Amino acid sequence: MAKIRKNTGDSDLIESHLLRVGSAYAEPYATGGSFEATNRRFAFADQKAKESGWSHTPIEEINRRFIKLDRSFISQLSQENNVFSGHPEYILREKMKISAELLLSCEPDVISLEVTNEGSIFYTWRKNDISIYLDHYLIEEHDGKDEAIVSIYKNNDKVADFAGSLDEVIVQINNSLVSESIDFPAFA
């Protein structure tokens, strides 16, 4: 995995994610191409793939969604400067990666995030008739662990409501979704 430095740029962080998940898209980043040049290569490759009838593999779709979430997070983070002042951006991004990768690992139909003025990321996740609302607090207040709150719904009926450390919430999500045959591979 690539080392994270204090002035990590977008392409360094995305490269570390792509290398970790073994994506074929990691190669352009690993060769040192600029973020913009890599995006142009991806766009060209995507156009050629569409013309030949090729479709994305699930891991490539997860990578694309991760990149979109990461860009959205950075954009929103800059708007909430006062909440996160004194907290290095690269640490906040690393924390975001943990919860984003968890939610992306089971290939949701829809996923979005919102950076709140309470120092958290609020995710909305949907797959089939299941909805998960996860509030991941990035700023530690007491014991140094990230806190989270999750609400899980099936057909608009509440299945679970839980608050605790992010690790505890992950276990609760997995336990609630096992009966739905949806699992988070990293935690199953």
Plain-language structure description:
The protein contains 6 helices and 5 strands, in the order αααααβββββα. With 188 residues, it is of the alpha+beta class. A 5-stranded antiparallel beta sheet has the order 1-2-3-4-5. A hairpin with a 2-residue loop joins strand 4 (147-154) and strand 5 (157-165). Helix 1 packs antiparallel against helix 4 (58-79) and helix 4 (58-79) runs antiparallel to helix 5 (89-104). The longest helix is centred in the middle third of the chain and has 22 residues, at 58-79. The radius of gyration is 17 Å and the shape is flat. The model is unreliable at 1-8 (pLDDT under 50).
Q: Name the strands of the widest sheet in spatial order.
A: 1-2-3-4-5
What are the segments in which pLDDT stays under 50 over at least 5 consecutive residues?
1-8
Run of helices and strands: HHHHHEEEEEH
Radius of gyration: 17 Å
Assign a percent range to the helix content: 40-55%
Roughly what fraction of the amino acids lie in strands? 15-25%
* Secondary structural class: alpha+beta
The major pleated sheet works out as: 5 strands, antiparallel
The geometry reads as flat
